[in-house]
Amino acid sequence: MGFFYSQFFVRPTYPTRSFQGETVLVTGANVGLGLEAARHIVRLGASRVILGVRNVEAGEAAKMEIETSTGRSGVCEVWKVDLASYTSVLAFGDRIAQIPRLDAVILNAALATRTFEFAEGYERTITVNVINTLLLALLILPSLKATRQKVPSVHPCLTFVVSEVHAWADTTEFESGRSDLLKALSDPIKAKMRGRYPMSKLLEVLLVQELAGRVRGSEVMIDMVNPGLCHSQLGREAGVGFMIMKIVLARSTEVGSRTLVHGVSMGLEGHGVYMTDGQLENTALSPFVRSKEGGEVREKLWDELSMILEGVRPGIMENAQ
Ligand SMILES: NC(=O)c1ccc[n+]([C@@H]2O[C@H](COP(=O)([O-])OP(=O)(O)OC[C@H]3O[C@@H](n4cnc5c(N)ncnc54)[C@H](OP(=O)(O)O)[C@@H]3O)[C@@H](O)[C@H]2O)c1
C-alpha cells in the first residue's frame, strides 16, 4: 500500500490483545509513540511495564499520566537508559537481566537530527538508532529466551520501531570497497546529515533482518514495525516543509502507537517481518533492502557491528543465535 493511501485511508486497529501477567519494556516511553504504546499495554492488563527513558523526570511524568488515564497504578517503573552511552546501555541491560520474566520489548527510542555530533566515536544518530539499539537487543535476548523456557505458554516478542523512510536513504553513501561502513558514515566532513535519519532506519532494518535470521523465531519472535507518519516530538529540528507535511498527513500519536502494540502481538508468522499499518508487509521493504547489493551491505554491517559490540562487551554476539 502506498504512503499517501495509508496516511489518508488506513487506521491501524485498536489493540485488544491481553497483556495480563506480562512484563513489558518500552524504550523512549516518556513521549510520542512509546508513551502511547505503554499506555495501551498498561490498559491491556500488563503486570509490569518498564519505561526505559534517558530523562527520569520526564519518565516519572509519563508514568503519572499513564496511571491517571488508565486507573492502574503500581504497574509502570521508570528506568534510566541513555542510548548515546555504552556504559548506560550495559548497566540497563544488566539490570534487565535480573528481572524474573520479560515477555515483550519495544525498542522505540530514536532521534532525528541534522546536527553532527559524536557519541562513543560514531555519529550520534548511528550510535543511538543503530549501534546501541542492537546492543540493547542483544543484552536482553537471554531474558526473553529464559522467559520462554520458564513459561512455555508465552512466546516472547522483540519489536523494533523502524520507518518507511528507510527507503529514502541515499545508498550511494555506502562507499564501495569499504567494510567499515558505520565508521565511514561517521566522518564529519562527508556525513550527509539531511539524510541521516532515513539512513539510520535503513541500517536498522538491515541489521534486524540479520538478527532475526540468526535467532530462532520459536524462541523469540523478532519483527519491525513502521508506524507511518505520526504526530510526536520527532523531527523537532526539521524544517517548515516537514511541519506542513505533518499537519496535512500525520496520524495521531495514539493511532500510530497501535502499530507498536501489534508488533508485540505477533506469533511465529511475524518473525523477521516488516509490518506497516499493523499488518505484515515484507513487500513494502525498499528495493535496496531486497536486492543482492542490500544483502552484501547487510553482511558487512553485521561484521562491523559484531566487532564494535565485542569490544564493548566481549562474548555478546553469542546472544545472537
Ligand atoms: N513519528 C513518526 O512519524 C515516526 C514515523 C516512523 C517511525 N518513527 C519511529 O518511532 C519511534 C518513536 O519516535 P517518536 O515519533 O515517538 O519520536 P519522539 O516523540 O521524539 O520520541 C523519541 C523517544 O526516544 C527517546 N530518545 C532519543 N534519544 C535517546 C537516547 N539517547 N537515549 C534514550 N532515549 C532516547 C526520546 O527521549 P527524550 O524525550 O529524552 O528526547 C523519546 O522518548 C522512533 O524509533 C522513530 O524512528 C516515528
UniProtKB/TrEMBL annotation:
Coiled-coil positions: none
GO MF entry, a single one: oxidoreductase activity
Keyword Translocase: no
Pfam families from the UniProt entry: adh_short (PF00106)
Top-level taxon: Eukaryota
Keywords in alphabetical order: Oxidoreductase
Name of the protein in question: Short-chain dehydrogenase/reductase SDR
Organism for this UniProt entry: Penicillium cinerascens
